[in-house]
Amino acid sequence: MKLFQIEEPDGTPLETDGPGAAVGIALAEGVASIAVAVGGNAELLARLPLGEPTETLRQLRGQAEKMLARPVTHAVIASDAAIDPAPAGLVLLRLVPADVGALGAASLAEDLAPRPS
Question: How many CA atoms within 13 Å lie on the side-chain side of 4?
Fold first, then answer.
């Protein structure tokens, strides 16, 4: 289910052939969360119990892609443990402390995300 349509800051539709969405992911205290930020406004997309890290990242990525109706390719991860998101199909933009949370990580992901050329 698509919750909302994300647009570029100038109101034009997203470039579907450009880089996928960059998200913030938090892995802490047995809970995994994923959020996206657009224009400085962050929105929590999903939460689920923290299981095996790669599988959890795949599940979060899949849920976010369904809700955003576009690929998710990059992430800022908030975790106190080293995480390799590559097996889940994500490029790590930055690893930050867990207390930053998914919303803070999403805001940072928006700033660090690759831009279409």
Answer: 9
